[in-house]
Each structure stands twice: as structure tokens, then as C-alpha cells.
Amino acid sequence: MLKKALLCLSKATAILLLCPAIALAISLTASVDRSTIDLEETLQLTLKLDTQANGKGPDFSALDMNFDIISNNRSSQYRSVNGKAESFTEWKLILSPKKVGQLLIPSVNYQGIYSEALVVEVKKTEPSNNSSKDIFIESSVSKSSVHVQEQIIFTVKLFTSINLRSINSDELTVDDALLVELSEQRYQKRLNDKPYAVIEIRYALFPQTSGVLEIPPLIYSVATKGRVRDPWSDPFGTQTGEMKRLRTQPLTVTVKPAEASFTGSSWLPSSQLSLNEEWSSDPSTFKVGEPITRVITLAAKGLTGAQLPPLKFAAEPGVKYYPDQAQTQDQNVEQGVTGLRTETIAVVPMKSGPLTLPAISLSWWNTDTQRQEKTTLPAIKVEVAEAAGVDYAQALPAPLPQTPTQVEENTKQNSAPPLLWMTISAVLALLSLALFIAYWRLKNRVNKGLIDSKIEHQSSLRTEHEDEQKAFQAMTEACKNGDLAATREKIIAWGISRWPNKHSTNLTTVGQHFDSEDADALLQELDASIYRGTQNSEPWPADKFLNLVKDLRSKKVTRRESGSKLKALYPTN
């Protein structure tokens, strides 16, 4: 009885210990579309549960302290990307802040799973001279004076209190500057007790020459939506309304040259710069001739990855470096660009004993404090051990000369009967045969692994093609049904299957992957029709869009990323 009781107790304990592990396997993540808003604006809070939700949703009562919940939409999705199934549930809430300041979005509880807490900055609404208009546009820059290559945030906001039929804008081009589109947000805002829908687009500009940077006017063409005329007098149901062309004000920014007092080798204007390193194994385990991989990542806020220079490694006696091709990447958020440069180096010590890897330093200009700073990875001191299996025979002293008597005795001792030598030869022959059999089996096993890997790769490509084919069929059916919201959802799903390595999260990014102005314009028109909230009298030309998709699908597909569009300022060989 005692053994049974102990067994039951151990099982119960195992179950209790396993429950937290099961809970930790499911996560509830929270995110907002903007981290800084005005008091009269709204923001969207998204909660994502990486499984299908059952029963009631999360408890949102804690939000009432700082926000009014305007709307709460729940959706569940199941999709397969590259043969990997993904199932999740999302809640999208539109929140209106109750006061000014740093407002907390508290942790939300769903069946014992908690999301992380977030902080949103709410500012007082600035008065606007355009608040009496039904539709207007505003533009602004984050700074009126910067240094060359320093980041500028250019923001365009379109306000409308009436329904719009279509929205089109010219492409922004700025001479002598790199341009990166950061984000497009849609939200609501009240100005003088009048509700507006707002479309906000942010760009990051990087001036390349000193002087005056001119940002030209950006023109938006919008069609307002009026009422449908009397069907008896107008049997075609023509809608009234008008076309408007809105133009932003031209802006100028003073661009100063690099500071004369700066002593660094590369001019790097940034608000924050850091160096981080990782090792494939502990550097204290260094052995002669055995490489250890060192990965160093340079991250800079307010700079692109193409602007970051290569790192310099000082030559050190007794060690060799074998660098790999550096990788650059850009992380775009509403606050700006963060550039990353990752360098991978194989470090091979050539002699045993103490070894010092020198410090790596990089000077940069802090755009917040307006002074030069230096970021450093400290020097590393290790003790390099001898490699295993080293022949020390050469290090031993030479043998002393022997007398004739000693030579004669050694000859007698080394003379063995012929049977002994035959036995030794037979054993060596058997060992050689065993080694050959082992080698033959190992070779067949490796070849089989390569064949299995090739078959798996071909199966993965076939699955990927089938997923894209299914997504295309679903998109075609949605286009023919005329449901614009479902059409947009299926187009985005098809874009994810078509370009799995790219972020096709909305119609804008799908249009960019097309590399076709006609397709981009059609997707913008679809987005504008959905944004107005009602169907247009003229149906969206789905057949024209499907023909463009068919033309695209008839071309060869490239599944890999093409890399950064910006040319590197410091190319590597």
C-alpha cells in the first residue's frame, strides 16, 4: 500500500509540474500600432493567442482605468506556410485615451495566460487651423537642422470627415537623400469635437550632402463620395461628388557638414550605437589550430545597415582571422530605422600559451547629446591549450650512442621467430578488411542521407507550390464574388504564399512585390474602397487584377530575398 501511495503521489507531482510547462507553451502577445498619440486620437491594440481560443475572450476590464474601448473585433485563423501549420486567435481593440501622460496598457489575462504590459505616451492635442475643413492634409519633419547622413522623419497626415471614393498620391522623391518608407497607420481623431479619419505615412530621409535639403510638395488626388442621383432621371445611378487635389507645404531642412572635431574613422550620426558579440563556444576552451566562431553585431538607431562601416581587427601574433561575408539589415518602425551589420569571423590560435584578443572600438556622433562617443568591446584574455594528438617525439633528447656489446644484445632481443611475424601480419590484414567494410557502410549511409535530403527539399518545394496554388484559387473565387473585404484578405494570404520570405502584411506591401504600377494602383483602389466603408457604384476591376496575377505567375519565381535596395557605402570583397 505504501508503494502504491508513493507512486500515485509521484504521478500527481509530475502532472502539477507539467501544467506550468504546458501553459508556457502558449503565449499571448500584445502590440500597438503607435506608441505616441494625441489625446483626441485613437490607437489599435492587438492581442494574439498562438492557438484557437475557446469560450470567452480575455478580461479587458483593466483597460477602463486609462482608455475607452471603442470597438473589439475577434478573428481566428488557420494557415499553412511552407508545410508548417499555424493556428492563432486575434483580438483587435480600438482605444481612446482618457488623459494626457504616460498611460499603462496593463497585462491582460486569458485563462491564466498573461500578455506583457505596454506604455503609450499621450500628448495634448495641438490646435489646427484646418479643423473647420472636411478634408485637409498636413506634413512635418522631426528636425529643422541635422548633420549630413543624419535621419529625418518626414510625416504626412491626411484628414477627412467625409467618405472618400479613392485616394492616390504621387511617389515621394527627394534629391540628394536616401528615402525609406517606415509605416502607414490609420486611426481616428477629434478636432474641435469633429471626428476625422486619419491616414498617416512616415518616411525616413538621410541627406547625403550638406546645405539645404528641399522636400517638395506631395500631391494627393482624392475623390469624394456623394449621394446617388435619382434613378428615374439617371438610370445609370451616377454618383455625385468631386475630385480634390491636396498638396503638402514644401519643407526645407538645414543640413550641416560632419563636425570638424569628430576624430572617428567613419562619420556615424546616431541616437544610440551598440556592439554585441557571441561565440560558438567558450573562448577559454581555445586549442591550437581549432577555430572558434565569433559573431559581432553592430546596431545603430537612425542609420541604415548600408551606412555602417566594416569593423577593424588588429593583427595579433599567434592568431589568424578568417572573416565571412558581412550581413546588413534594416529594422523599420514608426520611430525610424535601426541598421544592423553582422560580421562572422573564425578565430584560429596558432600557438599555445596566453593570448589577448584586442578590444574593438568604434567612435560615433550622438545626435541627442551632440557630442562624440565611443563604443567598445573589451579585450579578451585566454589561455590557449595544446591541440590533442600532438607528436612530442621531436621534443625528446636524442638517444646516447651504444657499445658493440649492447648492439649485439639488442639484435638478439629483436629477433623473433617467423610464426610471430606471420601472426602479426594476419591480424593487420583483418584490421584492414574491417576498416574497409566500416568505410563502405559509412559511405552508403552518407549517400543515403544526401538522397533523403534532396527528396525532402523537392517535397518542400512541391508543398510550397501547392500552397500558393490553393491561395490563388481562393483569391480568384473571392474576386469573382465581389466581396471587397474577403478579396483583400485572400490577396494578402496569396501574397504570403507567393513571397514567403517577405512581409506581405497588407495590400501596399503586396503591390510592392509585384513591381508593377498597374497592380499597385489597383490594390490602392481596393484599399480605398474598403476604407470608405461602402461599396462603390463602379465595381472594382477584379478581372484586370487577376490578369496581372496570371502574367506574374507565368514568370519564374525567385524565393530568396534580393537583399537591400540601398547600395552599401562600404562594400566588402
Description of the molecule:
There is one protein chain. The protein has 573 residues and is α+β, with helices and mostly antiparallel strands. The chain has four domains: 22-123, Sandwich (Immunoglobulin-like); 135-256, Sandwich (Immunoglobulin-like); 269-384, Immunoglobulin-like (Sandwich), CATH 2.60.40; 461-553, no CATH class. Helix content is 26%, strand content 36%. It has seven helices and 29 strands. It has helices spanning 2-25, 404-414, 418-481, 484-498, 507-514, 517-532, 542-553; strands at residues 28-32, 36-38, 43-49, 67-81, 84-97, 101-105, 109-110, 113-114, 118-123, 135-141, 145-147, 152-160, 164-169, 177-191, 194-207, 211-215, 219-224, 243-247, 251-256, 269-270, 272-279, 292-301, 319-323, 327-333, 336-349, 353-357, 360-366, 371-377, 380-384. The strands form nine sheets. Strands 21, 22, 23, 24 and 25 form a five-stranded antiparallel β-sheet that branches. The chain has a four-stranded antiparallel β-sheet with strand order 1-3-5-4, with no helix packed on it. A hairpin with a 2-residue loop joins strand 14 (177-191) and strand 15. Helix 3 (418-481) runs antiparallel to helix 4 and helix 5 (507-514) packs antiparallel against helix 6 (517-532). The chain is globular, with a radius of gyration of 34 Å. The termini are far apart. Mean pLDDT is 78; it is low at 9-24, 232-238, 390-417 and 557-573.
Structural class: alpha+beta
Number of helices: 7
**Fraction in beta strands:** 35-45%
Mean pLDDT level: 78
Count of the domains: 4
